[in-house]
Write a structure and sequence with these properties.
three-stranded parallel β-sheet; 50% helix; elongated
Length: 149
Amino acid sequence: MDYFEQEIVPRLGVHARYVGPLRQPDLCRLVGSSAVALVTPMWEEPFGLVIVEALATGTPVAAFDIGGVSEVIAGIPGAVTVTAGDVVALAHAAARLAATGAHEPLTRVWTRRATVRQHSLARRHREVERVLAHIAQPVPARRVPAVSW
């Protein structure tokens, strides 16, 4: 028996539906039609691309606050962090986000716009160029005072 059948299937529950591996367009449709994405790293996640990918579809994100997660979602509507490992707080945050999305459909539009503005490839490119331009500046020569013995 493989790992999936032995360890995952028994934990899925009666309402879970395993869809298997998906190609990118199908995965985008699935994530984009979800009420909320749960992001649950238990390690010091440095960036969390899955967060940006979910938010870019307009899908709200409830995430454990660990590593760089809070920095990634800072200022983006429809994104909430809770203490890492607190599954009860995560469930409450997810329920609030799902309810907000159901009652205020424009939240998904604002979430996507803020995410694209903050995490687009063009912005990343500009930021990298800015940093590289800064570090490429010549360092002025320092005059070392003469020492007399």
